[in-house]
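P.,

For your records, the input lines for the assembly:
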Amino acid sequence: MALFNLKKGTTMTEAPTAVEVNCETGEVTTRPLTAEEIAANEAAAAQTAANRAAAEAEAAAVAAAKESAQAKLAALGLSADEIAALSK
Amino acid sequence: MANTYTLISSQTLASTAASVTFSTIPSTYTDLCLKASIRTNDASTSSYFRMTINGDSGTNYGNRRLTGTGSAASSGNNSGQVWINAVYVASNGDTANTFGSTEIYIPSYNSTASKPMNIFTTEENNATASNIQLQAGLYIGTSAITSTTLLNVGSTLFLAGSSFYLYGIKNS
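Structure tokens returned:
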């Protein structure tokens, strides 16, 4: 696969590219993604979406539990300041 | 405690890219530290990138994470992953012309043991919700780290102006 040297100002393609920096030589090369890499990116998108949904669900569950606990404490007669003090 | 930081290499993108790799990393340091300022073309607020080590695409990565949104905090974990999921950088849905800050610290990268790492990522958004995340990442591999790649997900790309700096640290 052809490699292009950014330092020489080679025109970039519109296709997604991979940039590689060789730490030994300082050479920077860029190339179009392979079909395999594009497929991996798509798989990653699905996985990260799932991870994000899980994280958001975790946060929502914590917030719901907190709200429920605060309501129960209020029902027991605690003031808003007293309830807030419990979490400090 | 590390007392020297030496810039091994850096790259500021002149145009969009799907991934950035630092290859042929010298073995002459004790630790590695990758600092990056990243914005992606994702239209939503915040987006993700991921990281692989030595081109390894096996199920050798895991993490424990703490996330703050500005109004709520959460934690979670992943194991048996095929990459380090280093989430939350700025994207086109965030405040214009802002880039999310990232730092990844990898101690003992020449070790034959598994490689733990600290990952700190921020979204950077002038709004009520803006994500920040701290991860304890782990790469289960016995070879010294000689390359690392930061990759986007899906069709998202790192925008021009995103910058990446790899430092080597010696403890003496």
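Two observations worth noting. Chain B has a mean pLDDT of 90. Chain B touches chain A at residues 8-11, 13-26, 48, 50, 57, 65, 67, 69, 72-76, 78, 81, 83, 85, 87, 151-157, 164, 166 (CB under 8 Å).

Regards
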